[in-house]
Amino acid sequence: MADIQTATAHPAMQDPPVIYRADYQPPDWRVETVALEFDLDLSAAEVHATLALVRNGAHDRPVRLDCDGPLPQTLDLDGQPVNWRSEGHGIAFDVPTDRATVTLTTRIAPDTNTQLMGLFASNGMLCTQCEAEGFRRIIPFIDRPDNMAVYEVLLRADKRRFPVLLSNGALVESGDLEDGRHYARWHDPHPKPSYLFALVAGDLMATRDSFTTKSGQTVDLAIFVRAGDEGRTAHAMQALKASMAWDERVYGLEYDLPVFNIVAVSDFNMGAMENKGLNIFNSRYILADPDTATDYDYDAIEGVVAHEYFHNWSGNRVTCRDWFQLSLKEGFTVYRDQCFSADMGSEAVKRIEDVRMLRASQFPEDAGPLAHPIRPDSYMEISNFYTSTVYNKGAEVIRMMATMAGPERFRAGCDLYFRRHDGEAATCEDFVRAMEEGASLDLTQFRRWYEQAGTPQVQARLEHDAATGTATLHLRQNFAATPGQPVKPLMPIPLRTALIDRDMKAHRGETLVMLTEAEQSLQFEGYARAPVLSINRGFSAPVNLDVARASGDLAFLVRHDDDPFARYEALQQLVIDRLIADIAALDGPGGAEDHAVSLDEIIAVFGDLVSDQRIDDSMRAEILSLPTEAFLGEQMLVVRPEAIHAARRALRKAIGLRLLDPWRIVHERASAVPYSLSREARGARKVKSLALGYIASAEASDAAAIAFDQFARADNMTDRQGALAILASMQADERETALDSFYNRYQGNALVIDKWFSLQTGSAHPRVHEQMLELIRHKDFTLTNPNRVRALYWPFVSNQAVFHEASGRGYELLTDLVLKLDPLNPQTTARFIAPLGRWRRFDEARAGMMRGCLERILAQPGLSKDVTEQVVKSLE
Ligand code: 0A1
Ligand code: ZN
């Protein structure tokens, strides 16, 4: 067993203790059935629980119940009061028999629950969030995912204020009580861990539909929202039905209850929650109509609805043995929702978006102080491990297995996994073993993807021997150390590869190259002329690739590669090389040699793509977007925010100016396409705002007028927000007029007002900091709503040039937020530590200020363990 008091541990890390994966033990006791009775009100809820306990194995250890909130007011064992004792973060008592019935009562104050974990109030309704350890805030319980029980839930509340009473499973009975109260009894026949328990009580409106499963079962579907929002649920409902059909078609998985309910709440820490039969959603992932939601929002809703639905199998039917296995359900489910969204729209665009996300959040995480394997070895607060690594890198790991196996064998591996572990709490190892057997793969070395943190570095070089017609691909892998993992064993890296003939502009077929050694060379015969290397096509492995390739070859790939991702990647690389060279040149002549492609060539490639008929508008917009400043920073040893900002801005201006006419043509062409949700119309909207952005970057004299015109005439949020985002960065009268009109139009619509905050703090306007200070004091800003906090602060901290302004005032602003928010909502606060934790990547002055802020946070008395863990790790 690992020692928690290691020499390096910060004193703050010793209590509460670090939990280690290696210490896993099955529970001493299990709960077979749970009967819960709730008397609900906003300020006080009374809970009465009956638990059927069973001793697990031969031992004489006491029953220990986790508890983080109300202690039991009464606790009886087989009808007799028990003398329980407090023990750590729980209570314990002795039970002489192997089976026993425990009854207990607790009392909760939901409207004071600002952490939004357990039972809480949101906008006059009541709801729960139990993943990962929220159930213990409702009653003391064996609150771990390998303790699976059958739940029966009786809810009682005032009928007028809480006409809707929901829990997991199916409604058994309901009726009226005295004094204007009513009740509803729910039963869920599927044994489940406590993190999947849920209840909702409120005055909600339902949108209803139904789905017939492939075996002919009718499922009643409902989406519950606050009155007034029911006109915005159609897209979510559509996504739900499409997900149900897709999981049957692609995985053979059918829904298993007669009802599937979704509830939207406005105060929620995360995106959504997959409670059995009763998904609870952050309202931003349910509510949409053309006037209030962008195409991006529509896609996000479709993806999250699918994600939660797919959890019914990958997460609920087969759940996790312990929280170290989180990626078992999350990585797999993200992979499943990515494939679903690809099938619903454009596979190429979806892949680019997912890789962009991965590089924007997971790669930096993996290169910093909070790096951890997709299956972590230890944690202090599990909420801190709902990370991009566990989710998105976890999905990449599943994707690599799918690539290596091919679709049929991958499906056979999944079938075996679900068949073998249905109804169980499983491990990542169980999944890998099922995949090995079902898909006939040897995953011995591949298991390292679960063990090692960090992004592998792969170097590739293609050598050509004209005399023999041989092309030799030289590959090499290495891996930087990450916290706690100084030495990295070799990884198996699947690289989809093609050699493209320069004359034919085509290849002879793709090869899956498995890089398993430190260095490897592969020969390809029959190439009289050197072909062009296209490698890691479709981003088949989540690695950083360094390919020795002439810039002319990159331009060739942009024009001729048949893999859309590879085309995108080649242009990104061209642009990155150009910008890095421009940044070096800002220091004056005599810097590094400039091998990057010329600006003229970049403009020529962009010029071709602006009107290339072979790509659709959605892909066009994707490919012609410049890498973000943050991503450029990631490519540099020491991030230089001002230089990156200046170089990128200059390149945008050049692309805007020199292609001004084509951009105007695109903007006009796209503006003529009427609103619809068709792929063409959506693509047109995407390319329209991209073109507008370049027109604005060109500083064309009519740019503000065109943007304002797009804003004012928009009949949908995509165009309106697209124009406003551009205006928000401009110093023009139209900016204030548009922002005010947007605010006035949508006052009272929280999700749109969130956009209004974000557009300002994420802008390139020179006074963002001052605007930020005003917005913090705005009457609509509140610390108690996580969406609002994120809407204001997240674009600000992601706005590299602003957040990292040399004075350090951006860091101070974030530190003030952390100190104020932590006492209210530690889980949401802890997510804001990572931006300060990147201090090693910056110059000494900035690094010193960032560290100083982390130390100021750590000095705060009573700091939550969520924030403590992230700060201590960031300082180590
Ligand atoms: N399992 C959910 C994510 C989630 C995790 C923790 C939460 O606590 C506030 C909420 C949701 C998912 O993957 O969608
Ligand atoms: Zn999930």
From TrEMBL:
<dbReference type="InterPro" id="IPR014782">
    <property type="entry name" value="Peptidase_M1_dom"/>
</dbReference>
<dbReference type="InterPro" id="IPR012779">
    <property type="entry name" value="Peptidase_M1_pepN"/>
</dbReference>
<keyword id="KW-0482">Metalloprotease</keyword>
<keyword id="KW-0645">Protease</keyword>
<dbReference type="Pfam" id="PF01433">
    <property type="entry name" value="Peptidase_M1"/>
</dbReference>
<feature type="domain" description="Peptidase M1 membrane alanine aminopeptidase">
    <location>
        <begin position="236"/>
        <end position="449"/>
    </location>
</feature>
<dbReference type="InterPro" id="IPR027268">
    <property type="entry name" value="Peptidase_M4/M1_CTD_sf"/>
</dbReference>
<feature type="domain" description="Peptidase M1 alanyl aminopeptidase C-terminal">
    <location>
        <begin position="553"/>
        <end position="876"/>
    </location>
</feature>
<dbReference type="GO" id="GO:0008237">
    <property type="term" value="F:metallopeptidase activity"/>
</dbReference>
<dbReference type="Pfam" id="PF17900">
    <property type="entry name" value="Peptidase_M1_N"/>
</dbReference>
<feature type="domain" description="Peptidase M1 alanyl aminopeptidase Ig-like fold">
    <location>
        <begin position="454"/>
        <end position="546"/>
    </location>
</feature>
<dbReference type="InterPro" id="IPR037144">
    <property type="entry name" value="Peptidase_M1_pepN_C_sf"/>
</dbReference>
<dbReference type="InterPro" id="IPR038438">
    <property type="entry name" value="PepN_Ig-like_sf"/>
</dbReference>
<keyword id="KW-0862">Zinc</keyword>
<dbReference type="InterPro" id="IPR042097">
    <property type="entry name" value="Aminopeptidase_N-like_N_sf"/>
</dbReference>
<dbReference type="GO" id="GO:0016285">
    <property type="term" value="F:alanyl aminopeptidase activity"/>
</dbReference>
<keyword id="KW-0378">Hydrolase</keyword>
<dbReference type="GO" id="GO:0008270">
    <property type="term" value="F:zinc ion binding"/>
</dbReference>
<dbReference type="Pfam" id="PF11940">
    <property type="entry name" value="DUF3458"/>
</dbReference>
<keyword id="KW-0031">Aminopeptidase</keyword>
<keyword id="KW-0479">Metal-binding</keyword>
<dbReference type="InterPro" id="IPR001930">
    <property type="entry name" value="Peptidase_M1"/>
</dbReference>
<protein>
    <recommendedName>
        <fullName>Aminopeptidase N</fullName>
        <ecNumber>3.4.11.2</ecNumber>
    </recommendedName>
</protein>
<dbReference type="Pfam" id="PF17432">
    <property type="entry name" value="DUF3458_C"/>
</dbReference>
<dbReference type="InterPro" id="IPR045357">
    <property type="entry name" value="Aminopeptidase_N-like_N"/>
</dbReference>
<dbReference type="GO" id="GO:0006508">
    <property type="term" value="P:proteolysis"/>
</dbReference>
<feature type="domain" description="Aminopeptidase N-like N-terminal">
    <location>
        <begin position="93"/>
        <end position="196"/>
    </location>
</feature>
<comment type="similarity">
    <text>Belongs to the peptidase M1 family.</text>
</comment>
<dbReference type="InterPro" id="IPR035414">
    <property type="entry name" value="Peptidase_M1_pepN_Ig-like"/>
</dbReference>
<dbReference type="InterPro" id="IPR024601">
    <property type="entry name" value="Peptidase_M1_pepN_C"/>
</dbReference>
